[in-house]
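Practice set, problem 2.
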Amino acid sequence: MNQSSSQPPWWQNAIGYQIYPKSFYDSNQDGVGDIQGIIEKIPYIKSLGVNFVWLSPFFASPNVDNGYDVSNYEQIDPQYGKLADVFEMITKFHDKGIKVVFDLVINHTSDQHHWFEEAKKSQNNPYHDFYIWKKPVAGKAPNNWQSLFGGSAWEYNPQTDEYYYHLFAKQQPDLNWENPRVHQAVSEIIDWWASHGVDGFRLDAISHLKKLQTFADVDQPDEAMNDVAGIDDFLQELSDDFKPDHLMTVGEAGGVPVSRAQQWVDEQHGYFNMIFQFDHVSFWEKFTVGQVDVAQLRAALTRWQNGWQITAGTPYSLKIMIFPEPSPTLATILITVKKSAQALGMMYLLMKGTPFVYQGQELGMTNVSFDHIDQFRDLDSKHFYQEKLAAGWPVAKIMTSLRAKSRDNARTPMQWSTSKFAGFSHTQPWIEVNSNYPEINVADQQPSPQSTLNFYRQLIDLRLTDETLLSGQYHLIDTHDHQLYVYTREANNSGYLVVTNLSDQPAEFQVPDQFKLTNLVLSNDPAAALDSLIALKPWAANLYMYMYERKNS
């Protein structure tokens, strides 16, 4: 998107911190995080060194899908406080020099939104065409389109003898962006929040706005609803809504290939400032279990790093749990958690783009340890459980999958202290706290120089203060193995060498001859040295400065 100033836009040299309000901090002790809780923790957020926060949805909602089903875009869900609390929060973040980005869900609404409550009454209702309707075909759904949450994407409405379309849950009817009045209504919402000080938006599920207008059966689900031909017209019109107030925009663009990224984020004519991409997290392969394929990770991230200047961000915590023993001790687990969190942090935060840190990522918070489906709150996870149970999967196998990939992994309460409920609340939280909070929490990590929290603070400071890490070139050094991720950020005949071992086995890396290492800047291994043959312990992460003589190939 075009910038009027010769100076880089604020977001280009920034790091964001994603807050999940329901799980961040509970100020009124009812078991649910709230806006006043976020306000209380602004000093902590400031101490991380981040430049902006992105808040997951907290608008009025029945919470069928944890707030991604909005019933009123200009009201706050009462469980989080009052609208005045939000305005106070924005002001107090701004007072600390931190900008504020909200999650905007405009692919769909809640079925309890005023628009849909009117739309379903009759075909003549003024709001009827705000949504997508089709008559039954042979008494059944109009086509074979599937919901991402499983089952048909069509739900019958007896009042009009029609089916409405829902890409997600049936309580989340999709908006009809073919109707210009939908865009106008959304534009008014954007203007309203901008007038109250919001600095930008993360646009949820934005690659799904356009649906296949033939409404024919499809062979692949994406054909019906992901980056469908014609979506560019919608996105171009929408992008104009953000320009008057210089709002930062991040589009969630799962499934959009790197070949299309330039069109989405081109500096002059792109639709958004940045996009989230999911090639590296197997976005369409939910609930699979296994070790990370580092070779594929290298390839996916490098493809995007070299393809276009887009965000390096990811909307969920970077978590890997690979243990070196069949039955690890608690001490071994904690060392693995700490080292892996630090290695992932270094690998990720020093790439090109605008990094996002998800709450708790800076502590090395881990996936849930739940052993019963009743402990999960995620709608998608519950659907998966029932689906696989009906297919004959053993319960143990289903639970293993959920512990690895459920969205609830990113939703357990922030672990502030060793107090009961991790210092998140004095009351039983809406979702159980991870049982490892006595070992992984802010209070214990704050004073420890070797903690994951302080490792992240050092990475963030380096990332934001060094010109080479802000704007230097990215070069992969492909080790052709399944352990190492090594790359450089370089400018003006010098640079940084990032060497990470993303595995639970030792490894070695031979520094190429043209690199003259001058300094070991940061490491999570106290024994690390300035050697040309680098011995790497499991989950080691080393950052070096170097001078180089790049030889022509």
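Problem 2, part (b): a different protein.
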Amino acid sequence: MRFQLLGPLRVQPTGTPVRISARKQRTVIAMLLAHAGRAVPIRSLVTEVWDGRPPRSAVPNLHTYVMQLRHLLSAADPPAADRLVTSDGGYLLLVEPPELDLFRFEEQLARARKAWSGENLGAAEAAYARALGMWHGTPAEDVPLGPALRNVVADLTDRYLSTVEEHIDVQLALGAHRAAAERLHTLTARYPLREHLHAQLMLALHRCGDRPGALAAFAAARHALAEELGLDPGAELHRLHRMILGHDVDPGGSVVTLRGARRLLPPVPPAFVDRPRLFTLATTALSAPAGQGGVRVVALHGGGGNGKSALALRVAQRVAGRYADGVLYADLRGWRVGVPPARPVEVLGELLRTLGVPGGEVPVTEAEAAALYRSVLAGRRVLVVLDNATGAAQVAPLIPAGDGCAALVTCRGLPATLDAVPIAVGPLEEAEAVRLLASLASEPRVAAEPEAAAEVVRSCGCLPLAVRAAGARLAGRPDLLLETFAVRLRDRGGRLDLLPGVRSCVRAGYDQLSGRSDAARAFRSLGALDQPEVDVAVTAALLGVPRTAAERALDVLVELRLLEPAPGGRLRMHDLVRLVAAELNHREATASRGTDSG
């Protein structure tokens, strides 16, 4: 069998290609190929096929499409029907690596990079040519795309362009300047915002002796960037411009590129509910023309489980095209039970190696590593996503230098000393939470029991983490009525057991109270109080401490987002957070009684 995704969709056994004329069937097979070797949940296929707006009959219709695909495969090659496997809650297409063009492309690309790193330029050039020979157009160009496949196509297109740029770097290193220039004239016209392609064209024309053409290429790049993005060319283009004007010497090598900074974002969770207001605030802040005096920093802050990381990844995907030198991502591990937060020097080392600094040249001290990091990124346009940060001390060394860069930070409490655009991320609106539940547990099922679905998300406090846990549980129990599950969630004593992940998320915040006994006691005691809002006076009376001590304890809990400000100077504890606090209070009281009786 041969499967083609890098261009028009093709499924071809030993003879004639399988003709898949139905549009929705092509979407199904493309989705399975994009996840070859992994089962794709039915809910994800439904969302993809109907682009987030499935009819009530979506699931049975999907089963019909899969059955028809099996028939088409069997008609072309009888054993091929067995490749389309029904898995737990989804479907799996069995594909061997040599059969799918995407896998063959990745294999050749790995060979090319290995040869290039070993300075075997001839072998590298040949492997790059074979890798790019797998491409026959835009990925899945004849397939109706839903949200997941649109992301896949965007990622593959960026991967293709990065590979083209690497291949041309090798051509330039081999002296094939005229051939490179011919390719680059077409490429820069088609992709006018890829600064590295413009830089390569300038260098190729300069080395061909066409100085006016190289200067014209710089002018064209500057016009395209100003017209589309409101930006000036970056340091790479300006350096080449100076060289061509005779102010610098041509080093004779390939153009320096931050090749490793690309495609480093983890995938956005497949079940994701857009939050238009927050999304617009963040993308607008990160897309505005660079100002004077430093980088742009956006901080998404809020309590644990509110979906900050997923929102940050979606925002970063949207604005990545404005950062010509790529996107970096680092998980700072600030809120994991039993796992220490990442030290800045560790993260700096990882980022520097990603940016191409040899491991032996990465400084071992934080100050030296931060200085080199700022130097490498100076004059570049890079977006750095810093996920799960604990505070300013952890984040500050990781903020890049230069007004062409930006940082997108997710954190629970907003660091007071971080100069950032703050965007508070809270629980979902009820309608948004119901949509998230439906994307996991199936649209028809939620539509059939709307009142029960609303009760389920209310029991989750509309917390995205909890709604995801509820949706996953329902997806694993297609026989379970939403009303039955809603009734089970009414039992506050067992609710956390039905929503895995919530307890550990809250505990990660509570663990930060080590050494702050008053704040830890206040947290536990407020859980036992079992009321959603409190003030300083109530807390002081509850703890038996002066008002100033109660204020300090509450300030710590707000800083860690275990409490949230409420109108009238009061403070609110999320219902699920309060359940965890009550458990901890009960455990502490039980341990204390055991000690007293002993």
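Answer key, part (b): Residues 159 and 174 are 23 Å apart (CA to CA). The two ends are 72 Å apart (CA to CA).
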